[in-house]
Request: fold
Amino acid sequence: MIEQQRVLATSIPGPRSIELQQRKMAAVSAGVGTGLPIYVTAGEGGILRDVDDNQLIDFGSGIAVTNVGNRNPRVVEAVQRQMEDFTHTCFMVTPYEEYVEVCELLAELTPGDHDKRSALLSSGAEAVENAVKIARHATGRQAVAVFEHGYHGRTNLTMGMTAKNMPYKDGFGPFAPEVYRLPMAYPYRWPTGEKNCLDEAFEAFRSTVHAQIGEERCAAVVLEPIQGEGGFIVPPEGYIARVAEYCHDHGIVFIADEVQSGFCRTGDWFAMDHEGVAPDLITTAKGIAGGMPLAAVTGRAEIMDAVHPGGLGGTYGGNPVACAAGIASIESMREDDLNARARHIEELLVPRLQTIADRTGVVGEIRGRGAMLAVELVSDLDLKTPAPELTAAINKACHERGLVTLTCGTYGNVFRFLPPLTIGDDLLMEGADILEEAFAAALA
Ligand SMILES: *Cc1c(COP(=O)(O)O)cnc(C)c1O
Reply:
């Protein structure tokens, strides 16, 4: 058991972490970056402990993965139990119940009460790739429409679907063809002002699909209902419903990429629950299994079943240990009502972010939902000039004070908060105190 308490035993990173980072540089590809090189030895709830016995408050959840808390007891117990039974068979060779149970849970919990099927994979990128494969197969069409600021992964297809060049795409091309980028409904930066964003962004979406792709060539539109890496961009109320309706009218598969926003993160099971429409397909990963690698595509039975037997799969997809962790995580989300916890976190954290905004004058917008919150930092509130250096400096100041934070955004100026949903109120508020200090320190 780790006490849910911040401890600064050394400077951050401490001497042992610095030593390990040197070993890392000699053994690990430089291409694999480390945002906060403290070497972790234990984690629990909202705390990470490192090799120097520091204990840091976690506002990152391993990028929205440990929604149920690190080392969640139900997950640990389920993984241990499964390990004692068997570790792997490959579901495509000899199946097992846990895989089927995860798919049943996904059918129950994802938006819409239509008949659903799922396929399980091991990473978010793989889920997105498979969703595109399925949509192409089901429609007989090739084109895939994605959005500015979108992030969908690091495989060749999903890199091509991702918007941001550095660090995700630079020098890694050529990318897969038939991927088209559409304007994103980004209210804060909509050129003619936020109030015009809904109508104008939808018109820009519609006319771009029509003019540059052709509806009858378009297999799928892939959208994150709240964009993750792109900067926690929340489209205006009603935008997603219009996009979904347009897709429906033109036989285009509407895919919601909920790899980051799913599993209670936004205060609903899925961010799409907020929109009043169900996607045709939904991709999930990250928060699904408390840290074990599990991902899924879930969607309309007629689309999912259009693929020939053997057309989908992978050696590790839906590994039994990962499935056991997924089932236990979902049980925790239900038993501990983590949707309510996510909304509670929003209620506690947003006023603190508002105080920071009022005091510092560098916060252009506070946005997000539930425990998926961010501030976009600018050097001029009127010109909305992105402030990436300031964002990096505040992030670093948080790290030095024992708070694990992450940045994001196409312009590198979004500071995001993804605490585990089980984090205690006191740790959350201590994290907010550190944020205040870090802003003050970086602006001094
Ligand atoms: C992280 C992420 C992915 C990729 O998931 P991996 O497990 O890293 O492959 C895809 N889509 C979204 C929205 C994500 O946030």
In short: The longest strand covers residues 372-380. The mean pLDDT is 98. The chain has two domains: 15-72+337-443, 74-335. Residues 4 and 47 are 6 Å apart (CA to CA).
